[in-house]
Please model this.
Amino acid sequence: MPAPEAFAAFAAASIVLLVIPGPSVLYIVTRSVHQGRAAGLVSVLGIHTGSVVHVAAAAFGLSAILTSSATAFTVVKDVGAAYLIWLGVRALRGHDVEVEDGAPRRSLRRVYTQGVVVNVLNPKTALFFLAFLPQFVDLSRGAAWIQVIVLGVTFIALGFVSDGTYALAAARISRRVRDGSRRELFRRWLPGVTYIALGVVSAIAGSRRPATS
Model:
């Protein structure tokens, strides 16, 4: 288990990182604004299901592939960026059915699945877990993979609170400002442009070749 002081420092640093909006937060906020509170919360669940995948990869060394292989990094980065752009195009074309509280399960399942895919295909998330978590691991306190899992689960739990707050706040605000004249803006243009922008930014920001051994 991590040392208590290391655990406290990790939790404090994680809170700071989580409250600063990034691609995942923007994705969640867009879902909440576009489709309502239920979809926003389901997107939070999807995003952090993806985080579980990254924690497992970091714990067992799989994400080292992304830092050691420029080809693997580039493939994952490009697929993730293309997926975000595809979501944006779908939204602009009106293919995403609007979801409010009490929406059909099939629609919410799609929101959840998209959240998982968005985060799993984000190489920056894998690199974050690989570079950030080990700083708080003390090999003298037991198996490193157990400590990584403990820290990763802590990060995910804090992420649920932080991202859930963003989702609820965005849904509440969107209900207040959404009216007939702005409905098309919230239903298609805002999410569509946001997803495409996230895809472009993800592609550009991740274009630097990772360090190789």
